[in-house]
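note to self: dont lose this again. the chain is below, predicted strucutre after it. 316 aa total, dont forget to put it in the shared folder this time
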Amino acid sequence: MKTYQNPIEVEHLTRRFNDFDAVDDVSFHVETGEVFGWLGPNGAGKTTTIRMMLGLMSPTDGKIRILGYDPVTESREIHKSVGYMSQQFTLYNNLTAIENIRFYGKAYGLKNGDLAVRAEEILEMAGLANNFRRLTGTLSGGWRQRLALGCAIVHHPKLIFLDEPTAGVDPVSRRDFWRLIYSLSESGTTILVTTHYMDEAELCQRIGLMNKGRLIAIGTPPELKKTQMRGQVLEISTDDPGKTLILLQSVKDDETIPLEDVALYGAQVHAVVSDAGGQVDAIRALLESHQVKINGIEWIKPSLDDVFISSVSSVK
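---
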């Protein structure tokens, strides 16, 4: 095993397809035991970056070290030392839970005695100790999710890549899954996770935010809220949020109500303005002039959703 300062070290990473830079001069590192969120809209370059870190794609330029190994020349060593779980779970539905664990354990080189012990641990972790002979295809989403994580860590990897691991899973199962993630982190396992759920991103210790191939921000959730928010957030509650959104979007570039961004958040509308106190009266007058009943307009602290939209929309 090689020595290394950080499990993930990326320097000036670039991947070019003809004249298109899918990843453009990206540099960052992930520390041992850290839960690191890798966020960005579709097409931002997140998956391309992960594929290069795993040695599945060669960079056009730049340097990567994963657990001290170079993915270009030492991808086999990396595959022995890391775990990977995708949103498809990469399980065999026609095999039982225990058969999936044994299959992945043998693929990672575990011997019979060690594999038997590890299989028992994973079944317990996944809550499948009494259902280990059930076909995987008949398991609930939460069970399959935890089984997939177990198969990804069957060989005790020091580093795990989780690519949207909670997509399509119910909120209770998502919460339980994140408990497992932090249990692994506390034992020293490093975790890089992609997600489109901002409530999950809040649980990451640090976040890297990509857009259009570039790393546009990196830091803890509180740091990003402080440094990346372009303006103040007004939460507007009305009897017709859809109409409210359309009205505010129609005057977004109006000098009388200069809005940075407008977005729908459940039953509320969030408007990002330069001066929350100075814009409330103008927004209220606009909505009332179109017979929209206002239930409340409140200046709130930005959510990570607000920061995400603000950061992404500011990149040209």
